[in-house]
């Protein structure tokens, strides 16, 4: 590949556990359904040690930046949000780690605001205020690292029980287009981060992203080279129409998924970006937990000319 190269790792759906003890008041909401689901299903397959194995492997590969596409927590209780903030500090410097929230990070009304305040250094755009601006929109944000522009979008909002949908607003779409155009004019490789898959039919109706058409229009109008998402806990590649050609849309398994479950074992994407505007080169590799759950192994490589 051409030089210089930029290494970008991508993880998602951390679902940090175990669940803390919650008060009756905290459970007297949508959280009760998630609490039951965790104890019946998720806790059997989501393991913190699995996440540590991925992060150790990522660090060993000396990546330039880490993208985290949502669902750091489970029920978005205050303790979970603060635990996730402490975990982020162990992962890396905010300048080298970019986060967008998922539906679990906005599980009940008020939790989104608490999470964004606690995680603000990791969701703060390069030109955003140093302190969390409660009265301003955070998303979409723009971060420029070397020849790469990272554009973070949010689909997180509180939903009723038994719903896990996301919402991408018209305002975000307009501002995303502006950021994409500016980054393109600057000759940058544009990576868009979002939690819900912006692909129709990629997930169940109750888990869908509302605003898929807006997002597709933003990508086709503004232009992008890569879209990263989570939410499905699956390793997937789809394509959207871009300004000058097709744009890969890449999903990844939950970073905490142990071996033996119905969903794919924990994994991360590693992208190596090189080239120049009009002749970008993108090498995409996926590394996953091995069958024994004791290490990380390579799954495959794709080289995409963009």
From TrEMBL:
InterPro entries: Calcineurin-like_PHP, CNP_phosphodiesterase-III, Metallo-depent_PP-like. Belongs to the cyclic nucleotide phosphodiesterase class-III family. This is 3',5'-cyclic AMP phosphodiesterase CpdA. Keywords: Hydrolase, Iron, Metal-binding. Residues 7-233 form the Calcineurin-like phosphoesterase domain. It comes from the Bacteria. The keyword Iron applies. The keyword tRNA processing does not apply. It holds the Pfam family Metallophos. The lineage of its organism: Bacteria, Pseudomonadati, Pseudomonadota, Alphaproteobacteria, Hyphomicrobiales. GO terms for molecular function: hydrolase activity; metal ion binding.
């Amino acid at each position: 590949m051409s030089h210089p190269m930029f290494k970008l790792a991508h993880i998602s759906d951390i679902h940090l556990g175990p669940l803390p003890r919650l008060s009756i008041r905290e459970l007297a909401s949508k959280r009760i359904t998630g609490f039951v689901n965790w104890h019946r299903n998720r806790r059997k397959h989501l393991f913190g040690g699995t996440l540590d194995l991925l992060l150790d492997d990522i660090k060993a590969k000396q990546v330039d930046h880490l993208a985290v596409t949502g669902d750091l927590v489970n029920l978005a209780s205050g303790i979970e949000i603060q635990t996730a903030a402490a975990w982020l500090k162990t992962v890396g410097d905010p300048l080298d780690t970019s986060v967008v929230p998922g539906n679990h990070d906005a599980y009940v009304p008020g939790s989104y605001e608490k999470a964004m305040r606690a995680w603000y250094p990791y969701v703060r755009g390069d030109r955003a205020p140093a302190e969390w601006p409660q009265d301003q929109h955070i998303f979409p944000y723009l971060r420029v690292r070397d020849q790469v522009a990272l554009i973070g979008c949010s689909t997180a909002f509180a939903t009723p029980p038994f719903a896990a949908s996301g919402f991408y607003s018209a305002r975000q779409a307009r501002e995303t287009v502006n950021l994409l155009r500016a980054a393109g004019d600057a000759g940058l490789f544009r990576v868009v981060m979002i939690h819900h898959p912006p692909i129709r039919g990629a997930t169940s109706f109750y888990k869908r992203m509302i605003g898929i058409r807006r997002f597709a229009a933003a990508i086709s109008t503004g232009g992008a080279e890569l879209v990263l998402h989570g939410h499905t806990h699956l390793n997937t590649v789809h394509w959207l129409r871009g300004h000058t050609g097709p744009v890969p849309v890449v999903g990844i398994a939950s970073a905490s998924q142990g071996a033996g479950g119905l969903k794919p074992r924990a994994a991360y994407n590693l992208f190596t970006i090189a080239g120049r505007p009009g002749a970008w080169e993108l090498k995409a590799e996926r590394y996953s937990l091995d069958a024994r759950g004791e290490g990380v192994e390579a799954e495959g490589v794709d080289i995409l000319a963009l």
